[in-house]
Amino acid sequence: MRVRVAQVTDAEGISLVLQELVAAKKRTRPADLAFVREHYIGHADRIQCFVAEDGDGTILGFQSLKMCRENNDYGTPPGWGSIGTHVSPRAARRGVGARLFEATRLAAREAQVPAVEAYIGADNREGQAYYEAMGFRDYRNADGAVCKRYVVA
Length: 153
Ligand SMILES: CC(C)(COP(=O)(O)OP(=O)(O)OC[C@H]1O[C@@H](n2cnc3c(N)ncnc32)[C@H](O)[C@@H]1OP(=O)(O)O)[C@@H](O)C(=O)NCCC(=O)NCCS
Hints:
It is built from four helices and seven strands. It is of the alpha+beta class. The two termini are about 25 Å apart. The chain has a seven-stranded mixed beta sheet with strand order 1-2-3-4-5-7-6, sandwiched between helices. Helix 1 packs across helix 2. The longest helix is centred in the C-terminal third of the chain and has 16 residues, at about 95-110. The site of coenzyme A has 20 residues, from strand 4, helix 3 and helix 4.
C-alpha cells in the first residue's frame, strides 16, 4: 500500500470508494465525480488530501484535511483543521486509515493548525473507534454527532 497526495486524476477512484460506502450503508452524502472534485480534491480550503492505493494503483481510501473558516457549517473553531476519512469496505481494518493519518498528522503540523476536529455521526461506532485509536478525544456534542479533537503537537 502506498499513501500519496491526491491528484485531479484520482476523482474516479475516490468516487468508487464513496459509492462502495453508500452501497454498504456507511454513507448517505453524494459520491459522484463532481462532488469529489468540489469537496475533496479541489476544495478551496483544502490543506491536504491523501489517497492510499494498492500495488496496481487501485484507490483503497482517502483522507481530507480542510481549514475551518469563520461561521463554518459544523461550528468548528475557525483555524482548526477538519478531517474526513473514507476507506473502501473491501480494504477495511487493514491499517489503511492508520496509514492515511500518519500523513495527515504531518500535514496538519506543517499547516500549523492547533487542532483537528472529526465530526462523526453519533451512531457511527466504527468511525468513533477509528478516531479514538488515532488519538482523537471527545470534546463536544453537536446535533446528532460526536465531535472529537486531535491536539496537534
Ligand atoms: C472508520 C474507517 C475510516 C476506518 O478505516 P480502516 O482503514 O478500516 O481503519 P484501520 O484498519 O486503519 O484501523 C485503525 C484502528 O482503528 C480502530 N478501528 C477501525 N475500524 C474499527 C471497527 N470497525 N471497530 C472497532 N475499531 C475500529 C481500531 O483500533 C484499529 O486498530 P486495530 O485494527 O489494530 O484494532 C473506515 O471504516 C471507514 O471508512 N468507514 C466509513 C466512513 C466513516 O465512517 N468515516 C469516519 C467518520 S467521517
